[in-house]
Amino acid sequence: MLKYLLLLSLFSCASPFVVSVSSLSIKDEHVVYDYKDTSGEMLMEKVVKYKDKKVITSRKLYNNNLSNKKMLERSVTVSELGLLTVGERQTPLLRPFVSQYTVWFDGKEYFTQMKLNKVKKSLDILLKSPEEKWNGTKTIQFPTGIHFCFFSQVVECLKSTGFFKQAIEQKAGSLDLVIIWDTYPYFSEIYANLNEEVFSAATIKYETEDINKKKDDKVHHFSLDVNEQLILYEFNEKYEFEKFYWIAQGVTMERKQRKPVER
């Protein structure tokens, strides 16, 4: 019975949009980040918008050559802001809706789309690429869980829960979630030693607070434990995402500049 209730939270239409976005620290933003991995230095452009009860996150990864700017990856993920009610307790969350991801390997385009299928309680996946093994459609059933989150929307998922501010106030706390790898199945070509399944159980935890001496403000550290790898996230005292460290993969992402959000 409990398993049914947990899975029902993702597909239920009851009271889906009664949570105040402002109270959860989700806001429109357009930020450019310095992005580094084992292949070199790049730029990540990230845009977050709240529209029609949905949180839309767009990410574009470029090389760092201003004279020959080239897009390497792009993604758009859309989730619905919802509210899970179990007994007298209400929990705000994001419900994954659809994602599209494109990456270029040796100049060739690889594409994947994931979409929530409420009827089948599954994820419908469309693949298009130059390789036969990565073409066609497939349907994968959702595992048991409450908080499901696209990997590229971890920050927005974290901010959508009451856990985020509560953990900062108490300087402690953890939250279990299920990561949906929206880069599937191509992440096997990008990252090392990852489970190649589309879903991964994970835990996000508040680690510590310290002071950014350059900006003279507080820094809040969270960690995401997924596939036996640790990913670190940093937020400033305004709850804005600042840095990302994926130690095992040699990936870092650090805020470079903010741009106006197009309306």
Q: Tell me the number of helical segments per DSSP (H or I, 4 or more residues long).
A: 4
Low-confidence stretches: 1-9, 11-23
Separation of the first and last Cα atoms: 45 Å
- Overall mean pLDDT: 85
Q: Helicity, in percent? A: 10-25%
Sketch the major β-sheet.
15 strands, mixed
Biggest sheet: strand arrangement? 8-7-6-5-4-3-2-1-15-14-13-12-11-10-9
Number of strands: 15
Total domain modules = 1
> What multimeric state do the chains show?
single chain
SSE series: HEEEEEEEEEHHEHEEEEE
Structural class: mainly beta
Summed up:
The chain is mainly β and 263 residues long. 11% of the residues lie in helices and 55% in strands.
Question: What would your notes on this structure say?
Answer:
By secondary structure, this protein is mainly β. It has one domain. Helices cover 11% and strands 55% of the residues. It contains 4 helices and 15 strands. Strands 8-7-6-5-4-3-2-1-15-14-13-12-11-10-9 form a 15-stranded mixed β-sheet. Strand 11 and strand 12 form a beta hairpin. The termini are far apart. 29% of the residues are buried. The N terminus is likely disordered.
Write the layout of secondary structure elements.
Elements: H1 2-11, E1 29-37, E2 40-51, E3 54-63, E4 71-86, E5 89-105, E6 108-117, E7 122-128, E8 136-141, E9 148-150, H2 154-160, H3 162-170, E10 174-180, H4 187-190, E11 199-212, E12 217-226, E13 229-236, E14 241-246, E15 251-259
Parallel strand pairs: 9-10
Antiparallel strand pairs: 1-2, 1-15, 2-3, 3-4, 4-5, 5-6, 6-7, 7-8, 10-11, 11-12, 12-13, 13-14, 14-15
